[in-house]
């Protein structure tokens, strides 16, 4: 498996991502977002309120970072976001749990989609057998005063 496919496979393990945008004062703003869909090429879809601060931030600067983390898997993506008004796509993505934020359901006029096209990604996967092998390498490196070698099964940086 190539590193880009490994990254996309890891992304599919997450249902939430921290979306980082640039705020009005050039500060960075982060907020958790439920992932609506992950495309085969790594594009990620979110649903949000068109009147939210993140939408105005994305209109001013579409460059974003997505960060995802579990106890032993970590993904960071840099990409470009777009606000998409597509009712057919919304119908396909709709999740009834989102009525918490949109009481009128998918017919709410305030719903819009955010699509992030990743341009660069990094992952660290310390799960399963790869994680155990890494722990052994790290232990040996520690005993010898060295740094452990890390292979692409555990860590890689990818331009997409």
From TrEMBL:
Alphabetized InterPro entries for the sequence: Split_barrel_FMN-bd, Stress-Dev_Protein, YdaG_split_barrel_FMN-bd
Q: Where are the transmembrane segments?
A: none
> What domain of life does the UniProt record list for this protein's source?
Bacteria
Instruction: Give one Pfam family, short name only.
Output: Pyrid_ox_like
SUPFAM superfamilies per UniProt:
FMN-binding split barrel (SSF50475)
User: Which PANTHER family does this UniProt record tie to the protein?
Assistant: PROTEIN BLI-3
Residues in domain General stress protein FMN-binding split barrel?
3-148
Cite the source lineage: Bacteria, Pseudomonadati, Planctomycetota, Planctomycetia, Pirellulales
Protein name (database record): Pyridoxamine 5'-phosphate oxidase
């Amino acid at each position: 498996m190539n590193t880009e496919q490994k990254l996309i496979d890891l992304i599919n393990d997450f249902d939430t991502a921290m979306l980082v945008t640039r705020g009005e004062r050039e500060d960075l703003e982060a907020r958790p977002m439920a992932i609506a869909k992950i495309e085969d090429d790594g594009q990620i879809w979110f649903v949000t309120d068109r009147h939210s601060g993140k939408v105005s931030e994305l209109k001013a600067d579409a460059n974003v970072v997505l960060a995802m983390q579990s106890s032993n898997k970590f993904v960071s993506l840099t990409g470009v976001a777009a606000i998409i008004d597509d009712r057919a796509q919304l119908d396909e993505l709709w999740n009834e749990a989102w009525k918490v934020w949109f009481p009128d359901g998918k017919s709410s006029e305030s719903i819009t989609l955010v699509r992030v096209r990743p341009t660069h990604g990094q992952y660290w996967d310390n799960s399963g057998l790869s994680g155990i092998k890494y722990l052994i390498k790290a232990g040996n490196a520690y005993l010898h005063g060295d740094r452990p070698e890390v292979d692409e099964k555990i860590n890689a940086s990818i331009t997409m």
